[in-house]
Design goal:
The complex is a heterotrimer of chains A (319), B (316) and C (292). With 319 residues, chain A is α/β, with parallel strands linked by helices. Chain A has a domain of 160 residues: P-loop containing nucleotide triphosphate hydrolases (Rossmann fold, 3-Layer(aba) Sandwich). Helices cover 31% and strands 23% of the residues of chain A. Chain A has an eight-stranded mixed beta sheet with strand order 6-7-8-3-9-10-12-11, sandwiched between helices. The two termini of chain A are 34 Å apart. Chain B has eleven helices and twelve strands. In chain B, the strands form two sheets. Chain B has an eight-stranded mixed beta sheet, with helices on both faces. In chain B, helix 4 crosses helix 5, helix 4 runs parallel beside helix 6 and helix 6 runs parallel beside helix 7. With 292 residues, chain C is mainly alpha-helical. Chain C has a single domain, classed as MetI-like (MetI-like fold, Orthogonal Bundle). The chains are: A alpha/beta (319), B alpha/beta (316), C mainly alpha (292). Chains in contact: A-B, A-C. At the A-C interface, helix 3 and helix 4 of A face helix 8 and helix 9 of C.
Chain lengths: 319, 316, 292
Amino acid sequence: MNTPFIKIEDAVKIFTLHGLAFRRKSFFAIDHVSMEIKQGQTIGLVGESGSGKSTLGRCILSLLRLDGGKIIFRGLKIHNMKAREFRPLRRELQMVFQSPKTSFNPSMTIGQSIINAMCLRTDLSKKAKLEYLIELLNQVQLSPLFAGKFPWEVSGGELQRAGLARALAVQPKFIFLDEPTSALDISIRGQIVNLLLDIQERNKLTYIFVSHDLQLIRYVADYIYVMYMGQIMESGKREELFSYPLHPYTRALLRATLLGREERRQARLQSLKGEVIAYDWSGKGCKLAPRCAEATPKCFEETQFLHTINGRQVRCWRV
Amino acid sequence: MTDLNIQDLQVNINTGQETYYVLRGVTFKVPAGAKLGLVGESGCGKSMTAASIMRLLPKNATIVKGQILLDQLNLINLSEKEMRQIRGKRITLIFQDAASALNPLCSAVQHVADVYARHISLSRKESLHHAYELLAKTGIPKHLAHNYPHELSGGMSQRVMIAMALGCSPEILIADEPTTGLDVTIQTQVVELIERTVEEIGSSLIFISHDIGLVSEICDRIVVMYAGKIVEAGNREQIISGPGHPYTTALLHSFRAQPGKRMPFIPGRVPDLRIRQEGCSFAPRCSLADNQCWHSEPKLSEISPGHEVACFHMDK
Amino acid sequence: MKTITVSTEIYRSRNKGWFRQLCFLNGTWNVVSTWIVLGVFIALALAADILPLQNPLAVNASEILQPPSSNHWFGTDPWGMDVFSRTIFAIRVDFLLAVSSVILGIVAGVLLGAVAGFFGGFLDDLLTRFAEVIQGFPQMLFGMAVLALLGNNAINLIFICAFYNVPVYARLVRSVVSPLREADFVQAARVSGNTSLMIVFRHLIPNTLVPVFSQFPLSCAWAIQIVAGLSFIGLGIRVPTPEWGSMINLGANYIVFGKWWPSVFPGLAIVISVWVLNNLGNQLKSVFFTGI
């Protein structure tokens, strides 16, 4: 089992915004990203809007094509595959979307949506699909009555669980979880997360868990990649990353989600200023430089590369 | 400055077939210049409380009982015309989803200038001038002030909303989940901005959120709501270090998730507001619930100065 | 042993009969009256031949423009024909014409609109130009040209009405489908293995049916109008075949003289028909798309 389960090599995805009068701005949604995922792992993907994490998920699931690089699943090159070729692989790679309300068809009941998701399960008869539906709903702790309800009749947490049931319908080996708890109250966050962990153990799944909430990632992920504007800024094992965050961006995220008021007041000088403006990168220098409190002229000039320190990767020359 | 005093507010929503008892007797005070946090899960009635204060309730909602006293003025008795003098000027509201709360046909600076033009009756030129200044203060430089809402990011839209809300130096600012949907690093910026400007103007703040951690960062006083009622109210220290109600304790646990095996959460779901059940509404989800809890409703009582709890088992 | 029976169908419709459910969603009066009127219409249309009605084609010069009487319940028209029996015989013609042509137009329009809206690009542009051309063309001229070229019969009439409905529904459907192309649930359907065709038919078209059902009765009323216009100039349904639109036209000039019955009764018939179709559309909507 030496081949990694999923390997992403130097992936590139460029988006073009069409402005007025033929002005077009292109930017790297995914900027030369490489990752290795072993079977059974939970990879944490941390980053904010514009970091490329959702885009990466869509590329893995063949909803978007890559403009460069490779995605290799079990030795097979799956990026830019033709739809017909990729279809059988959809039984192994699945996704749970961020906003449960929009990820269900409003004109279909939840049960109908989940049964529709079994369209690749040609091994099941119609009756068997219904039975499996009940079993799936049980697995995610929803009563069978939910099958007859419409998405808008159900709360966000319950709908997100239904989304998980849908992803499990094909019995996948891998699930990309795109911010599964962001749209939910903090008090039910734990419910979904514990359920995800249970199901992972029971079904021996591999997860990529995306979130901007480091507190949450600490619970679920074994290995974490921190992304900013399409690039990996830092990566490392859970313990290492949280105990010794190396990159300024990681530290800023930790401050924003983990620390309390007093610590934040003290660290005020070191917080990030400004916002992510996706297409406003001059092309050289560190992408974080305009916002980084520790930026020096060198940060603006020299393009930063990922270098490895003690088995971890960091993209900052100061480290 | 002014006090806001809400007394026994009860609001129902009639859908023609059913009645939702959305607020079931809400009582709390916001002293002048205070920062009060209103905490609770989705569906507990916190947004409804804000809407009631602003008298922006949906058409099928009725204020069954209660008073909302702005100093001595009862907002419930005011006509729509009178209420319009208050909204946007004396009491202002920041919405949750800023991008959709803005008019897609007006630029950022136009939004803010309109506030001035409407309430303070300045000339077009003067209101524009003030608008630019105010936007710059909230962190939107002049070259971005002409952008339309679809050209603004979430954080920037929220800043425009804040500028609009503060334009007339209101006496009370209500912020209804202003950070939902924003990046975490932007969240801290927005929260700090709200805090800074509220202190500068000297207005009171009602900060509504489902995140008790966020609320505890800027608010001195915290009110916890559940199923249309207040279950606990107290100062920040009292609530954070010594919560009295099991719901508050559970909320704090889920916020302060310490690394461990299982992530803490509150089991069950928020009660159906159509049903007025006997006893404490939190009983189905409470680990301490006993016979008394299921049959009689606990009332808010003071367990220490300024700290009120509605529970029969006030744990320390 | 207790087994849980689960249905993915709408929960409510399992327990109540469909009729009771319709009443619950739309109001009993609405449902009952619509179906009774529809039933009456259908019965009259089917049984028109055997009912004791006056001959709808009997021209009678001595009895022109008689007001409603016990002999002629709805009076007589300028040609002496009995308005009542003509109104009833016209049910067949109008309903059949209107409904069938509109349904044809809907089927074609929905398909085209869904495919164009979903796949976009060249197909979409082509459809939009096509729709613009058809809708820009004067309807009467087109109708006249087709009937003149291809023969003046009912099939061609149906074709004309259907043809004009295609761009209407295509655009309607396209306006719903196009923004949904990138919707989360469509992506989710793709991730689950749905092919593009499955997405269009199973996921997107059901979401378009609400505006389509709303438009349906209006299209039917319009179809009756076009047929009336064409028959007025002698094409399509020729007088003396009873047809509401042409009956109205025939009597239109005489309203000024106080002879209202030749036009008003068929006019009322059209109003009632559109009302019935409208309610049917709403009821269909309510059953399939509760809450949307």
